[in-house]
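EI: anyone free to look at a 137-residue chain?
SC: sure, send it
EI:
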Amino acid sequence: MINFFAKSVAATYVWKRYKKIIISTAALFLGYFLINAIHHDFLEYQKLSGSGQQLLFSYILKWLALGAITALYYYINIHNRIKNAKEPLTKSSKQQANSAKNNKAENQTENSPDPFADIRKKETLRSRADIEMDKRK
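SC: here you go
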C-alpha cells in the first residue's frame, strides 16, 4: 500500500511539474512519426506510379516540416521559459519581498545582540595579511 502511495505521489509530482514538457515532447515525436509516415507513403506512391518528378520537392517539404515543428517545440519550451525568467518583479511582489526582508532584519535585531557591533566601532579594519605586510616592510 505504501509502495503504491509513494509511486503515486512521485508520478503526481513529476506530472504537475513537467506537464507542459511531457505533452509537447510527445506531440513532437508524434509529429515526427506522422511526417515520416506521410513521406514514406508518398515515396511508395511515386515508386508505384513510375514517376520521380516530385521527389526533390517531397524531401524539401519533409525537412521544412520537421524543422518547423522542432522550432515550434523549442519556442514553446525554451523561449517561454527564458521569457518568464527575465520578467521583472511587479510592484506588489517587490514590496512583499522588501517587507519580508525588513521584518526579518527587525526580528534579528530585537531578539539577539548585534555580532558585528565591535567591527562597526573600529576606525580601520585590518586583516592578518595587512599586519604581516606591515611587519615585512
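EI: Residues 2-89 form one domain.
SC: 👍
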